[in-house]
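Field reference: "sequence" (input) and "structure" (output). Example, DNA-binding protein:
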Amino acid sequence: MSKLTDVPKRILIGRALRSDKLGETLLPKRIALPVFASDPLSSVAYAPGEVLLVLSIAGVSAYHFSPWIALAVVVLMFTVVASYRQNVHAYPSGGGDYEVANTNLGPKAGLTVASALLVDYVLTVAVSISSGIENLGSAIPFVVEHKVLCAVAVIALLTVLNLRGMKESGKLFAIPTYVFVVGVFIMLAWGAYRALTGDDMNAPTADLEIKPEHPGLAGFALVFLLLRAFSSGCAALTGVEAISNGVPAFRKPKSKNAATTLALMGGLAVVMFCGIIALAMNTGVRMAENPAHDLVRDGVPVGDAYVQNPVISQVAAAVFGEGTFFFILLAAATALVLFLAANTAYNGFPLLGSILAQDRWLPRQLHTRGDRLAFSNGIVLLAGAAILLVVLYGADSTKLIQLYIVGVFVSFTLSQIGMVRHWNRHLKSERKPAERRRMIRSRAINAFGASFTGLVLVVVLATKFTHGAWVALLGMVIFYGTMTAIRKHYDRVAEEIAAAEGPSDDSLRPSRVHSIVLVSKVHKPTLRALAYAKLMRSDRLEALSISVDPAETKALRDEWERRGINVPLKILDSPYREITRPIIEYVKGLRRESPRDVVSIYIPEYVVGHWYEHLLHNQSALRLKGRLLFTPGVMVTSVPYQLESSEAAKKRAKKRADWNAPGAVRRGPVARPPRETTKESTKS
């Protein structure tokens, strides 16, 4: 079975890597930028459109508020980036928001942040992939007709790429990310040049009118609409926290490289976001939440057949011309980078999951590195949750994005509050004037960040709760409750199995050991098990067989006597032809008679070399062991007997001797074993 599964596994994710190769998977800044920042960079493909979609409720006249909303998003972006630069220097271990909140605000705050981030990472994959499918679907009708299937396929592909390892996938993702960034900057530069020279640029929707759902909004209603548009534009900030969670993945000096990447990401995202908003206003882009009815041409709604293209696509058509080389290049790069934007979550979610597992909030399996030194279990868990969301919401980015950014602003706010307490604690003991000035400056940055992001969190909750944000909050509650239950279980088990200081029942020597060798026939495996059991020098040794067929039982008894085996043979009748239950009842009877005795069971087992042979042998032994494990005071020992076919398995294992066994790699590097001296090295 292992051979059948091992070959496709190696084809998909590659050969296993040694633990001491972990340093070779660390990322330089040029690779870390597309790996960790592809989410906020790609959000410029849909964040400007979300702003215009909300403003369209009040009609085209509300579009003139979009530059002010963009300015507010820019201020927020710079605030968050500046705040997180303090985080990566203060907490370079990779815990990010979770570690900051857990250390400074307590376990409950840390768990709240972790729940929010886990939900946001899942949504990042679902939203990015769904948005990318919609962008690609404008050119390929098949994708639109089967967008759920296509979205699931893309998630599966990304999962395989990430299972191959972060550095390998990062190199692949770097090219389309940089092509997208360069393409957007060329579009902005060329569009600015054409605008300054007075050249007319018209978007494909410039001749359409918007029928407002609520015309003439004023007062509180208008303010609420602007706040909702601002909260939608804040989608441009998703993924910013991933760099602080991924500091361990950077090359040394880790904190410095992470802070530089963070600043570069913020600068690029701000310029692209503002530039697209400006060009959208200049080219007359029109967007509507319900385009079939709210977009009007010559007084007639465009109808259900109309496909509303994203803002970036309309701006590119106005600047470059629809169907031109640069238009097609940017459209392809946009669709691809939206797919790859999910990679931010693929790197953040497993790292955070590993840290939570180390702290016993999540199953220990999430702390384990896979064959390619990636946190494989976390990657698979993320993919499964994202696929579930995509299926439930029909890969509709408009519906999914309403769930978005709630979690990230919960983590932003608690993290910055935690950083303020961090600086307060260190200022109490710091005496150097230069260090105190630096800490006071950092505290001021984090305090402003906490206030601003807290205000935005209130705005997001107020404006998006009924539009779907409640689902994200429900997801956070589920994560929080699940992780709390897991931690309680681990704590309960740890308390139960903790070794006592003085003598205990588990450390006291049992009064006697009653050994039982299970026998079906007299053959080599049985004789080996008997010989091994005799070597253990038990207080009492007997062989036990179950009588299912009288003829076979008689043959067994005759052969036992003929060979003169000096071990008593006890045969239990089984009128219902059961094997497991009579043995369990017999063992329990022995335990009731002598509670301080230990019963040791020896089970002969075949060692086979082919997967199909497992189906033909050892089935009764497996069932029996499963029952005996739940019986107190019983020890189970398997006595292996290697069949000839096991030699084939041994030869296959020798051929793969240079590979690590699946799951053998654990988190963190280990010492390299001493290098063996070969004949070639001796000659040299």
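The chain has 26 helices and eight strands.
The domain at 29-488 is CATH 1.20.1740.10 (Amino acid/polyamine transporter I).
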